[in-house]
Amino acid sequence: QTDIPAVKSVVTEFPVGAAITGAEITTEHGELLARHFNSVTPGNALKWDATEPTENTFTYTQADPLIAFAKAHDMKVRGHTLVWHNQTPAWVFQDASGAAMTATAENKALLLARLENHIRNVAAHYGDTIGTWDVVNEVIDESQSDGLRRSNWYNITGLDYLRTAFKVAREVVPSAKLCINDYNTNVAAKRDALYNLVVKLKGEGVPIDCVGHQMHVNVSWPSISDTEAMLKKFEGVGVEQQVTEMDVSIYTSSGESFPTPPADRLLSQAYMYRDMFALFRKYKADLTSVTLWGLADDNTWLDTYPVARKDAPLLFDTRLQAKSAYWGVVDPSKIG
Ligand code: G3I
Question: Which family is annotated (predicted)?
Protein backbone atom coordinates (compact mmCIF):
# COMPACT_ATOMS: atom_id res chain seq x y z
CA GLN A 1 0.00 0.00 0.00
CA THR A 2 1.89 2.99 -1.22
CA ASP A 3 -1.24 5.03 -1.94
CA ILE A 4 -1.95 5.91 1.69
CA PRO A 5 -0.32 8.69 3.72
CA ALA A 6 2.69 7.87 5.83
CA VAL A 7 1.87 8.07 9.53
CA LYS A 8 4.89 10.33 10.05
CA SER A 9 3.69 12.73 7.36
CA VAL A 10 0.41 13.27 9.19
CA VAL A 11 1.55 13.13 12.80
CA THR A 12 4.26 15.76 12.72
CA GLU A 13 4.07 17.03 16.31
CA PHE A 14 6.61 14.45 17.49
CA PRO A 15 8.53 11.48 16.06
CA VAL A 16 6.36 8.38 15.73
CA GLY A 17 8.02 5.03 16.17
CA ALA A 18 7.59 1.30 16.21
CA ALA A 19 9.35 -1.41 18.19
CA ILE A 20 11.01 -4.19 16.25
CA THR A 21 11.45 -7.53 17.96
CA GLY A 22 12.36 -9.84 15.09
CA ALA A 23 13.91 -9.94 11.66
CA GLU A 24 11.52 -7.34 10.25
CA ILE A 25 14.12 -5.10 8.68
CA THR A 26 15.22 -7.87 6.33
CA THR A 27 11.70 -8.36 4.94
CA GLU A 28 8.99 -6.18 3.46
CA HIS A 29 8.27 -5.10 7.03
CA GLY A 30 11.38 -2.97 6.75
CA GLU A 31 9.81 -0.95 3.93
CA LEU A 32 6.64 -0.48 5.96
CA LEU A 33 8.68 0.63 8.96
CA ALA A 34 10.74 3.19 7.06
CA ARG A 35 7.75 4.46 5.12
CA HIS A 36 5.52 5.22 8.08
CA PHE A 37 7.79 5.81 11.05
CA ASN A 38 10.69 8.10 11.89
CA SER A 39 11.74 6.43 15.11
CA VAL A 40 12.48 2.83 16.02
CA THR A 41 12.94 0.93 19.27
CA PRO A 42 14.77 -2.39 19.34
CA GLY A 43 12.24 -4.44 21.33
CA ASN A 44 14.68 -6.98 22.70
CA ALA A 45 18.07 -6.47 21.05
CA LEU A 46 19.43 -3.94 23.54
CA LYS A 47 18.38 -5.73 26.72
CA TRP A 48 21.05 -7.04 29.05
CA ASP A 49 20.66 -10.70 28.03
CA ALA A 50 21.33 -9.70 24.43
CA THR A 51 24.20 -7.27 24.97
CA GLU A 52 26.14 -8.79 27.89
CA PRO A 53 25.13 -12.44 28.14
CA THR A 54 28.28 -13.30 30.08
CA GLU A 55 30.19 -10.94 32.30
CA ASN A 56 32.15 -8.31 30.41
CA THR A 57 31.57 -9.96 27.02
CA PHE A 58 29.55 -7.50 24.99
CA THR A 59 27.71 -8.51 21.81
CA TYR A 60 25.85 -6.15 19.55
CA THR A 61 25.00 -8.55 16.74
CA GLN A 62 21.26 -8.27 17.31
CA ALA A 63 21.04 -4.52 17.67
CA ASP A 64 23.69 -3.25 15.26
CA PRO A 65 21.78 -4.09 12.04
CA LEU A 66 18.70 -2.35 13.40
CA ILE A 67 20.62 0.74 14.38
CA ALA A 68 22.29 0.80 10.96
CA PHE A 69 18.86 0.50 9.31
CA ALA A 70 17.59 3.42 11.38
CA LYS A 71 20.59 5.52 10.44
CA ALA A 72 20.23 4.68 6.75
CA HIS A 73 16.59 5.77 6.83
CA ASP A 74 17.12 8.85 8.96
CA MET A 75 15.13 7.46 11.86
CA LYS A 76 15.64 8.23 15.54
CA VAL A 77 16.41 5.37 17.90
CA ARG A 78 15.06 4.77 21.40
CA GLY A 79 17.42 2.58 23.38
CA HIS A 80 15.51 0.01 25.43
CA THR A 81 16.68 -0.72 28.08
CA LEU A 82 19.80 -0.49 30.25
CA VAL A 83 18.37 -1.74 33.55
CA TRP A 84 15.42 -4.07 34.06
CA HIS A 85 14.51 -6.99 36.31
CA ASN A 86 13.59 -9.18 33.31
CA GLN A 87 15.81 -10.42 30.49
CA THR A 88 18.83 -9.96 32.72
CA PRO A 89 21.22 -12.92 32.91
CA ALA A 90 21.46 -14.81 36.21
CA TRP A 91 25.17 -14.07 36.61
CA VAL A 92 24.40 -10.39 37.23
CA PHE A 93 22.84 -11.24 40.59
CA GLN A 94 25.32 -13.92 41.65
CA ASP A 95 28.09 -13.26 44.14
CA ALA A 96 31.75 -14.09 43.70
CA SER A 97 31.06 -17.74 44.66
CA GLY A 98 28.22 -18.09 42.17
CA ALA A 99 25.47 -18.03 44.81
CA ALA A 100 22.43 -15.75 44.61
CA MET A 101 23.35 -12.36 46.03
CA THR A 102 22.09 -11.42 49.45
CA ALA A 103 21.90 -7.83 50.63
CA THR A 104 25.45 -7.28 51.88
CA ALA A 105 27.68 -4.25 51.39
CA GLU A 106 30.07 -6.38 49.34
CA ASN A 107 27.33 -7.57 46.98
CA LYS A 108 25.96 -4.07 46.63
CA ALA A 109 29.37 -2.81 45.54
CA LEU A 110 29.75 -5.70 43.10
CA LEU A 111 26.28 -5.22 41.60
CA LEU A 112 26.74 -1.47 41.18
CA ALA A 113 30.13 -2.06 39.56
CA ARG A 114 28.51 -4.49 37.09
CA LEU A 115 25.78 -1.97 36.38
CA GLU A 116 28.29 0.78 35.74
CA ASN A 117 30.40 -1.42 33.49
CA HIS A 118 27.32 -2.46 31.52
CA ILE A 119 26.18 1.08 30.90
CA ARG A 120 29.66 2.34 30.09
CA ASN A 121 30.01 -0.28 27.39
CA VAL A 122 26.54 -0.38 25.87
CA ALA A 123 25.84 3.35 25.88
CA ALA A 124 29.33 4.17 24.60
CA HIS A 125 29.04 1.62 21.78
CA TYR A 126 26.14 3.62 20.33
CA GLY A 127 27.07 7.12 21.44
CA ASP A 128 25.00 9.78 19.71
CA THR A 129 23.13 7.36 17.45
CA ILE A 130 20.78 6.54 20.31
CA GLY A 131 19.07 9.81 21.15
CA THR A 132 16.95 8.51 24.02
CA TRP A 133 17.57 5.71 26.51
CA ASP A 134 15.11 3.94 28.74
CA VAL A 135 17.76 3.93 31.43
CA VAL A 136 15.55 2.00 33.81
CA ASN A 137 12.40 0.05 33.14
CA GLU A 138 9.46 -0.81 35.41
CA VAL A 139 10.90 0.09 38.80
CA ILE A 140 7.54 1.02 40.36
CA ASP A 141 5.29 -1.31 42.34
CA GLU A 142 2.41 0.70 43.68
CA SER A 143 1.35 -2.15 45.99
CA GLN A 144 4.44 -1.43 48.13
CA SER A 145 3.98 1.35 50.68
CA ASP A 146 6.98 3.19 49.24
CA GLY A 147 5.94 2.41 45.65
CA LEU A 148 9.23 0.72 44.79
CA ARG A 149 9.49 -2.65 43.10
CA ARG A 150 11.28 -5.29 45.16
CA SER A 151 13.58 -6.42 42.34
CA ASN A 152 17.07 -7.79 42.88
CA TRP A 153 18.28 -4.33 41.99
CA TYR A 154 16.30 -2.74 44.77
CA ASN A 155 16.79 -5.51 47.30
CA ILE A 156 20.56 -5.34 47.02
CA THR A 157 21.22 -1.65 46.34
CA GLY A 158 18.13 0.27 47.50
CA LEU A 159 17.75 3.36 45.33
CA ASP A 160 21.45 3.47 44.48
CA TYR A 161 21.02 1.45 41.28
CA LEU A 162 18.83 4.24 39.97
CA ARG A 163 21.25 6.96 41.01
CA THR A 164 24.19 5.09 39.49
CA ALA A 165 22.41 4.21 36.26
CA PHE A 166 21.36 7.77 35.43
CA LYS A 167 24.64 9.36 36.50
CA VAL A 168 26.76 6.95 34.50
CA ALA A 169 24.51 7.19 31.44
CA ARG A 170 24.71 11.00 31.56
CA GLU A 171 28.47 10.85 31.80
CA VAL A 172 28.85 8.42 28.89
CA VAL A 173 26.27 9.94 26.53
CA PRO A 174 25.65 13.51 27.66
CA SER A 175 23.52 14.28 24.61
CA ALA A 176 21.02 11.45 25.17
CA LYS A 177 17.64 11.95 26.80
CA LEU A 178 17.50 9.71 29.84
CA CYS A 179 14.11 8.16 30.64
CA ILE A 180 12.46 6.24 33.42
CA ASN A 181 9.91 3.99 31.74
CA ASP A 182 6.89 2.18 33.18
CA TYR A 183 3.48 0.66 32.42
CA ASN A 184 0.01 1.52 33.77
CA THR A 185 1.11 5.06 34.52
CA ASN A 186 -2.46 6.09 33.73
CA VAL A 187 -3.52 4.34 36.97
CA ALA A 188 -3.55 6.93 39.75
CA ALA A 189 -1.60 4.93 42.35
CA LYS A 190 1.09 3.95 39.88
CA ARG A 191 1.31 7.42 38.37
CA ASP A 192 1.67 8.98 41.80
CA ALA A 193 4.34 6.51 42.93
CA LEU A 194 6.34 7.22 39.77
CA TYR A 195 5.86 10.94 40.21
CA ASN A 196 7.09 10.81 43.82
CA LEU A 197 10.18 8.87 42.80
CA VAL A 198 11.01 11.21 39.93
CA VAL A 199 10.58 14.29 42.11
CA LYS A 200 12.75 12.78 44.86
CA LEU A 201 15.55 11.72 42.52
CA LYS A 202 15.53 14.93 40.51
CA GLY A 203 15.65 16.82 43.81
CA GLU A 204 18.90 14.99 44.54
CA GLY A 205 20.28 15.99 41.17
CA VAL A 206 19.85 12.59 39.48
CA PRO A 207 19.78 13.39 35.75
CA ILE A 208 16.32 12.18 34.69
CA ASP A 209 15.17 13.94 31.51
CA CYS A 210 12.09 12.05 30.65
CA VAL A 211 9.22 9.87 31.82
CA GLY A 212 8.19 7.03 29.51
CA HIS A 213 4.58 5.88 29.52
CA GLN A 214 4.35 2.42 27.98
CA MET A 215 0.59 2.60 27.18
CA HIS A 216 -0.21 -1.08 26.77
CA VAL A 217 -3.95 -0.48 26.65
CA ASN A 218 -7.07 -2.12 25.22
CA VAL A 219 -10.17 -1.19 23.25
CA SER A 220 -12.07 0.00 26.32
CA TRP A 221 -9.35 0.95 28.82
CA PRO A 222 -8.15 3.40 30.01
CA SER A 223 -10.29 6.51 29.74
CA ILE A 224 -8.94 9.51 27.93
CA SER A 225 -9.40 11.57 31.08
CA ASP A 226 -7.19 9.21 33.14
CA THR A 227 -4.60 9.37 30.38
CA GLU A 228 -4.79 13.14 30.35
CA ALA A 229 -4.38 13.16 34.15
CA MET A 230 -1.21 11.12 33.64
CA LEU A 231 0.24 13.66 31.21
CA LYS A 232 -0.83 16.59 33.37
CA LYS A 233 0.75 15.09 36.47
CA PHE A 234 4.23 15.28 35.01
CA GLU A 235 3.91 18.77 33.55
CA GLY A 236 6.07 21.22 35.44
CA VAL A 237 8.35 18.56 36.93
CA GLY A 238 11.02 19.47 34.42
CA VAL A 239 10.81 16.27 32.39
CA GLU A 240 9.82 15.46 28.87
CA GLN A 241 7.29 12.70 28.40
CA GLN A 242 7.25 9.98 25.80
CA VAL A 243 4.74 7.27 24.92
CA THR A 244 7.06 4.34 24.54
CA GLU A 245 5.22 1.06 23.93
CA MET A 246 1.67 1.72 22.83
CA ASP A 247 -0.59 -1.02 21.60
CA VAL A 248 -4.35 -1.48 21.85
CA SER A 249 -5.41 -5.06 22.58
CA ILE A 250 -8.72 -6.19 21.13
CA TYR A 251 -9.32 -8.09 24.40
CA THR A 252 -10.85 -6.62 27.51
CA SER A 253 -10.30 -9.63 29.79
CA SER A 254 -8.00 -12.64 29.92
CA GLY A 255 -10.93 -15.02 29.41
CA GLU A 256 -11.67 -13.83 25.87
CA SER A 257 -10.28 -15.41 22.74
CA PHE A 258 -11.34 -14.77 19.14
CA PRO A 259 -10.10 -16.77 16.16
CA THR A 260 -10.22 -13.59 14.08
CA PRO A 261 -10.61 -10.00 15.31
CA PRO A 262 -14.34 -9.09 15.49
CA ALA A 263 -15.37 -6.04 13.46
CA ASP A 264 -16.79 -4.18 16.46
CA ARG A 265 -13.53 -4.57 18.36
CA LEU A 266 -11.52 -3.26 15.42
CA LEU A 267 -13.82 -0.27 15.28
CA SER A 268 -13.47 0.41 19.02
CA GLN A 269 -9.74 0.07 18.55
CA ALA A 270 -9.75 2.68 15.81
CA TYR A 271 -11.63 5.08 18.07
CA MET A 272 -9.17 4.42 20.89
CA TYR A 273 -6.22 5.21 18.62
CA ARG A 274 -8.06 8.28 17.31
CA ASP A 275 -8.79 9.63 20.78
CA MET A 276 -5.37 8.83 22.20
CA PHE A 277 -3.52 10.42 19.30
CA ALA A 278 -5.75 13.50 19.51
CA LEU A 279 -4.77 13.76 23.18
CA PHE A 280 -1.09 13.21 22.44
CA ARG A 281 -1.11 15.90 19.78
CA LYS A 282 -2.80 18.27 22.19
CA TYR A 283 0.07 17.64 24.62
CA LYS A 284 2.77 18.15 22.02
CA ALA A 285 4.55 20.63 24.29
CA ASP A 286 5.16 17.83 26.81
CA LEU A 287 5.39 14.76 24.59
CA THR A 288 8.56 14.30 22.59
CA SER A 289 7.78 10.99 20.92
CA VAL A 290 5.15 8.29 20.55
CA THR A 291 6.16 4.71 19.81
CA LEU A 292 3.98 1.67 19.10
CA TRP A 293 5.08 -1.70 20.43
CA GLY A 294 5.27 -3.38 17.08
CA LEU A 295 4.65 -2.78 13.42
CA ALA A 296 1.94 -5.19 12.28
CA ASP A 297 -0.36 -7.76 13.85
CA ASP A 298 1.71 -10.70 12.64
CA ASN A 299 4.27 -10.03 15.38
CA THR A 300 3.00 -8.89 18.75
CA TRP A 301 3.92 -9.90 22.30
CA LEU A 302 0.18 -9.98 23.04
CA ASP A 303 -0.18 -13.25 21.11
CA THR A 304 1.35 -14.93 24.15
CA TYR A 305 0.44 -12.56 26.98
CA PRO A 306 -1.47 -12.89 29.30
CA VAL A 307 -2.51 -16.14 27.59
CA ALA A 308 -1.89 -17.65 24.17
CA ARG A 309 -4.48 -16.24 21.75
CA LYS A 310 -4.33 -14.19 18.57
CA ASP A 311 -4.39 -10.48 19.24
CA ALA A 312 -4.44 -7.60 16.75
CA PRO A 313 -3.24 -4.49 18.60
CA LEU A 314 -1.37 -2.50 15.93
CA LEU A 315 -2.06 -0.23 12.94
CA PHE A 316 -1.38 -2.83 10.23
CA ASP A 317 -2.87 -6.31 9.95
CA THR A 318 -1.12 -9.65 9.56
CA ARG A 319 -0.85 -9.00 5.78
CA LEU A 320 0.63 -5.56 6.46
CA GLN A 321 -2.53 -3.79 5.25
CA ALA A 322 -3.69 -0.60 6.98
CA LYS A 323 -6.46 -1.25 9.51
CA SER A 324 -9.17 1.07 10.79
CA ALA A 325 -6.71 1.70 13.62
CA TYR A 326 -4.37 3.26 11.06
CA TRP A 327 -7.15 5.58 9.91
CA GLY A 328 -7.87 6.41 13.54
CA VAL A 329 -4.40 7.92 13.68
CA VAL A 330 -4.15 9.31 10.15
CA ASP A 331 -7.68 10.39 9.16
CA PRO A 332 -10.56 9.51 11.50
CA SER A 333 -13.14 10.44 8.84
CA LYS A 334 -12.09 7.26 7.01
CA ILE A 335 -12.56 4.86 9.96
CA GLY A 336 -14.73 1.88 9.11
O1 G3I B 1 14.55 -15.48 20.70
C2 G3I B 1 13.89 -16.62 21.28
C3 G3I B 1 13.76 -17.70 20.26
O4 G3I B 1 15.04 -18.15 19.88
C5 G3I B 1 12.94 -18.85 20.88
O6 G3I B 1 12.71 -19.82 19.92
C7 G3I B 1 11.61 -18.33 21.38
C8 G3I B 1 10.80 -19.42 22.09
O9 G3I B 1 10.07 -18.92 23.17
O10 G3I B 1 11.85 -17.30 22.31
C11 G3I B 1 12.53 -16.20 21.74
O12 G3I B 1 12.69 -15.22 22.73
C13 G3I B 1 11.53 -14.50 23.08
C14 G3I B 1 11.77 -13.03 22.77
O15 G3I B 1 10.68 -12.28 23.25
C16 G3I B 1 11.93 -12.76 21.26
O17 G3I B 1 10.72 -12.99 20.60
C18 G3I B 1 11.30 -14.70 24.57
O19 G3I B 1 10.93 -16.05 24.83
C20 G3I B 1 10.21 -13.78 25.05
O21 G3I B 1 10.14 -13.84 26.47
C22 G3I B 1 10.52 -12.35 24.65
O23 G3I B 1 9.43 -11.56 25.01
C24 G3I B 1 9.68 -10.16 25.07
C25 G3I B 1 9.27 -9.63 26.42
O26 G3I B 1 9.45 -8.22 26.46
C27 G3I B 1 10.11 -10.29 27.51
O28 G3I B 1 9.93 -9.72 28.74
C29 G3I B 1 8.86 -9.49 23.98
O30 G3I B 1 9.31 -9.90 22.70
C31 G3I B 1 8.95 -7.98 24.13
O32 G3I B 1 8.02 -7.40 23.25
C33 G3I B 1 8.59 -7.59 25.56
O34 G3I B 1 8.72 -6.20 25.69
C35 G3I B 1 8.33 -5.62 26.93
C36 G3I B 1 9.20 -4.41 27.17
O37 G3I B 1 10.56 -4.75 27.09
C38 G3I B 1 8.90 -3.75 28.51
N39 G3I B 1 7.49 -3.47 28.65
C40 G3I B 1 6.58 -4.56 28.36
C41 G3I B 1 6.87 -5.16 26.98
C42 G3I B 1 5.90 -6.26 26.65
O43 G3I B 1 6.06 -7.36 27.52
Answer: Belongs to the glycosyl hydrolase 10 (cellulase F) family.
